[in-house]
Amino acid sequence: MIRIDSVTKRYPDGTVAVDRLSLEIPDRSITVLVGPSGCGKTTTLRMINRMVEPSEGRILLDGVDIMQQPVNTLRRSMGYVIQNAGLFQHRTIVDNIATVPRMLGWGKDVARSRARELMERVGLDASLAKRYPYQLSGGQQQRVGVARALAADPPVLLMDEPFSAVDPVVRKGLQDELLRIQEELGKTIVFVTHDIDEAVKLGTMVAVMRTGGRLAQFAPPAELLSNPADDFVEDFLGADRGIRRLSFFPSAGLELLTTPIVAVDATAEQIAARGSADVPYLLVTDLDGRPLGWSEPRDLTAGQIEPERLLPYGRPFVAERDSLRAALDGAVLSPTGWAVAVDGEGRAAGVVSQQTIGEAIRGAHAAAPVDAKAGR
Amino acid sequence: MNGLFDLPSDLQNSYWGLIALHLREAMIPVLAGLLVALPIAQLCVRLRWLYPPVLWVTTVLYAIPSLAFFVVLIDYTGLSETTVMIPLAVYSLVVFVPAIVDGVRSVPRETLDAATAMGFGPVRRYVQVQLPIAAPAIIAGLRVASVSSISLVSVGMLIGNQGALGNLLNSGMIYNQPRLIWLSVVGTAVLAIVVDAVLIGLRILVTPWMPRGTRKNARPIALKDAAR
Ligand SMILES: Nc1ncnc2c1ncn2[C@@H]1O[C@H](COP(=O)(O)OP(=O)(O)OP(=O)(O)O)[C@@H](O)[C@H]1O
Ligand SMILES: [Mg+2]
């Protein structure tokens, strides 16, 4: 565990970048430092690997003051990932990744095969191994940066806005990849960002910092969204924190209706029997059970159902796995106001109305803040 | 004395011998200048305030005519090759110091941070990260310094025929043989071109990591050359 104990950083010009900050960073989980520009996130992160020395206070790693270790030994036990990756432009991708193992005295071949193994782990094609950084896209470079930080298998990973220079689609890919890698490796990660959505998505614990380098709140994301400590945190979370909080409520409890579903080859009797007063629409699926679209029962003629003329069904959510946010999103996007739930293979598992989702949300709010890791 | 490349016997050397001598007299000072410039430049990178005065000093040294250097040096090193090479080495600093400083400074901040964060000490970081990335700029400086040095060696003829190919200029005038003057001028020019080409080859060899197309940007700073 990393313990930041009442640490202050005053730069020579008098700027107080971090002000009496105390944090307990739990092992084998992602702790996110988030806050507006200039609030001291980078300074805090760099104090952990001693690129910046605290003016007051101390930082303990597994109970031992980090000042007790030789500085370069400490740094080699912590991977560091930054914006724009900071790759060595004069070295190939494998050699970039193999840097720390080589410094630790590993043989060239061992270090390189380790590097190739890591390329696979972070989702880089092996054919890129012999390339130079300029031949890679920003997203690929960032993956190399992550692989390089992981190369010597350090227990701690420090990440300073690693994904902020890439476009949103690539960023989402990198975030998902990080969560996946973290699931396999269980590092102690300290992650800096100024993007609250990223913080909520990645963090097991989130530390919100305010300008002047002070801690505003330190809590799991679900709690942050439900109980912001003050106006600053509430402001920082943004207007739609209610909606975002739904990410932490599982959809598993939703009652799915399977009656109003017919296959595209349905008979007249089936169409008649499945329509009811409660459900004004029927969901039509293909022969495999995948949703095609909605229709009012009276517009359906047995044997002549034309998929192109059906109403769109919005974006389905995966039953049991996705959150209430995804379910609500599906209902809002569907012109009928009903959300479609699918199973892992994309086959319709049931449908659910906005109203039912609304009730589930009210029920979830009434219960205590839900387990932080439920359905992202 | 009839062949194209035959030389008067008082030169005590064949044409090829003179070319080899010329190359040595030109390149040893350049390499010495590079070795001296490396630590000076590193100091200038570390202590920013030092850079402007150091640049100023190298420029002033460059402005001193080689003859003035010779007059002073002859008392110590005599009418020797060394007397010719010392000023050449001094002149090369005006090219090398800024080339190395700018090259080292061009290393991106985040690359340096990444190196520090991975546990590179200052020396390792300089040798393994900063110098290799500065290599194109340094080699660009090397090209300017080499070509300039090759042209400057000829003045050595003023102190007892220490000017290698330059000595032919003198002989050409004494014996009234334009052929010798041509041999000197063309030989010097070809030598300069060949050395420059070799250095270009060297740069391509050591920088496979540079994006194509930007390689040309490493073109040397305009050749400051004066008649001395
Ligand atoms: N070397 C330095 N000397 C003086 N002041 C500094 C130095 N580095 C940072 N600061 C100041 O300390 C404060 C915190 O800087 P820091 O880089 O930690 O912020 P940050 O939260 O990482 O911001 P950003 O999101 O913009 O990266 C800022 O006011 C900054 O201007
Ligand atoms: Mg920062």
From TrEMBL, chain A:
SMART domains: AAA
Pfam families registered for this protein in UniProt: ABC_tran (PF00005)
Keywords of this entry: ATP-binding, Nucleotide-binding, Transport
EC identifiers of the protein: 7.6.2.9
Gene3D superfamilies, sorted: P-loop containing nucleotide triphosphate hydrolases (3.40.50.300)
Family annotation (InterPro entries): AAA+_ATPase, ABC_transporter-like_ATP-bd, ABC_transporter-like_CS, P-loop_NTPase
SUPFAM superfamilies: P-loop containing nucleoside triphosphate hydrolases (SSF52540)
Sequence similarity: Belongs to the ABC transporter superfamily.
Cited PANTHER family: OSMOPROTECTANT IMPORT ATP-BINDING PROTEIN OSMV
Protein name per Swiss-Prot or TrEMBL: ABC-type quaternary amine transporter
Lineage: Bacteria, Bacillati, Actinomycetota, Actinomycetes, Kitasatosporales
UniProtKB/TrEMBL annotation, chain B:
GO terms for biological process, alphabetical: glycine betaine transport; transmembrane transport
Membrane topology according to the record: Multi-pass membrane protein
Keywords assigned by UniProt, alphabetized: Membrane, Transmembrane, Transmembrane helix, Transport
CDD domains: TM_PBP2 (cd06261)
InterPro entries with a match to the protein in the record: ABC_transp_perm/SBD, MetI-like, MetI-like_sf
ABC transmembrane type-1 domain segment(s): 19-203
Cell compartments where the protein resides: Cell membrane; Membrane
Pfam families (UniProt xref): BPD_transp_1
Family: Belongs to the binding-protein-dependent transport system permease family.
Protein name, entry field: ABC transporter permease
Protein source organism: Streptomyces spinoverrucosus
